[in-house]
Amino acid sequence: MSTATRTDWQTRTRPTDADGWIGRAAEVAGVLATDAAARDKAGATPYAEVQLLKDSGLVTLLGPAAHGGGGQDWPTAYRVVREIAKADGSIGQLLGYHYLWNWAARLVGTREQWEQVEADAARNQWFFGGAVNPRDNDVVVRDEGDSITFTGHKSFSTGSKVSDVTVLEGVFEGTDRHVFAIVPSDSEGLTFHDDWDNIGQRLTESGSVTLDGVTVPWAAAAGYVDKEFRPRVYNTLNVPTIQLVFVAFYLGIAAGALETAAVYTRHKSRSWLHGGFDAAVDEPHVIDTYGDLTAKLWAAEALADTVAAEGQRLHEDPDAVTEQARGEFEVRVAAVKARATDVALEVTSRIFEVTGARSTASAEGLDRFWRNVRTHTLHDPVAYKRREVGRHVLTAELPEPTWYS
């Protein structure tokens, strides 16, 4: 990976608006794209890739401008994730999860807590990871007087070894009270296991983690004051927000697949010998397929942008978020998640119909797009997203806030 562009970023004026940051993300994607297929095959820990995100300023996109952050909003963050995912789905996921975990203090914590976290994160360019897999038994949290300890195991911890800080989640022993806390990723008792070996999203550092009495001061227990949690409806927006992050990198991967395939078709695909056309780009079925897939992708992107704007209105006035507003927003998120899943899977599998048999060569790496989408879209069954939409249409039922809705 070239370092020339990184050095140039450090001497240039940072973007000041959404278009500028999206343009910066496209530049980063250009660097990532040069060896994306090779890095996917190697499966090495993406230290250099995360440093690229830091050097470009993208890690502080949502941070307060007063402390060196980009001061941007969530619709811009989703667009940035899409741009990065066009080149590398794994790095797009890492960046998207980073944005969510960076924002988690604001979602769950007190004003004093999240202001401190966001200021420190922006000044120090922290990269966030998270050990918050809800499918595992909850990590046990114990009250040790002035501190609390986290003990247990999570089978997924995206960002693990490349993160500066990690968001932990657990339940106080003998209760149903959950607690989040942000700790340095090199904290004593926090052990990341190098066991992420899946067919897609290979560079996300999503292996398991063991927590063996990780100690956190009570002051860092997000949203707790005098050992009591102060709930808000806004706390429950963590799921719709991360689901829109998923949408962003699904659509980014699909766009990257379509762009990469189009280059291949223009320069490498051969027309069918019995089709009567000299070039693949002139074959009717090829033209039709690209038109069909592009139209579907553009429609899903437009819906994603619309729903992102709806969500931003909730982020701008957290204390005014009602259960009704939150539920209606989750229905919209469920709809776009379902469409993005279907479109991304279709695009990444059908590109081979218009690139030809030789495009399946391992050296081309076109399969990485489908592998990445297929792997992550299994995160939670899309049928349940469609069900949320259907029930709301038929009975006005709002989804109950859970770890997945």
CATH superfamily of the largest domain: Butyryl-CoA Dehydrogenase, subunit A, domain 3
Architecture of the largest domain in CATH?
A: Up-down Bundle
Q: What is the CATH topology of the largest domain?
A: Butyryl-CoA Dehydrogenase, subunit A, domain 3
The coarse silhouette is globular
Structural class: alpha+beta
Q: CATH first level of the largest domain: which class?
A: Mainly Alpha
- Say how many strands there are: 9
Q: Number of helical segments?
A: 12
Listing every helix as H and every strand as E from the N terminus to the C terminus, the arrangement reads: HHHHHHHEEEEEEEEEHHHHH
Overall mean confidence score, pLDDT = 95
What is the CA-based Rg, rounded?
22 Å
Largest sheet: 7 strands, mixed
Q: Indicate the low-confidence ranges by residue numbers.
A: none
Domain Acyl-CoA dehydrogenase C-terminal: 244-379
Pfam family, one: Acyl-CoA_dh_N
Keywords: Dioxygenase, Flavoprotein, Membrane, Oxidoreductase, Transmembrane, Transmembrane helix
Transmembrane segments: 244-264
